[in-house]
Design a protein that fits this description.
Arc Repressor Mutant, subunit A; three-stranded antiparallel sheet
């Protein structure tokens, strides 16, 4: 039997935000999470999610004359979308067991 993909609550928040809003960078995710994500841990989680194959990223091009590091934009992979859909379906089944009886 293969391992089922694991999705932590933090990873789920990130995936839901990315599916809803499209490509975002780390601080945008923190801002839009209404306190569910913390600035100090979001980038560690994003890196772990990339390692799992849940996210792809790219560097935002710097405008001419800009100083500093370019921001990294994140988007969910097709695999992550399937994992999120499976978790949502499982949640419906377990939270509404009467709809499955019959």
């Amino acid at each position: 039997m293969s391992d089922l993909p694991h999705l932590s609550s933090t990873e789920r928040v990130i995936l839901c935000l990315l599916v809803e809003h499209g490509e975002l960078f780390g601080l945008q995710l923190v801002e839009r999470s209404n306190g569910a994500l913390k600035r100090g841990t979001v980038y560690v989680t994003l890196g772990r999610m990339q390692d799992k194959g849940y996210l792809e990223s790219r560097q935002e091009p710097l405008p001419p004359g800009a100083i500093g590091l370019p921001r990294r934009l994140y988007r969910p992979t097709a695999y992550a979308r399937r994992v999120l859909d499976a978790w949502r379906l499982a949640e419906q089944v377990f939270l509404n067991p009467t709809t499955q009886e019959g």
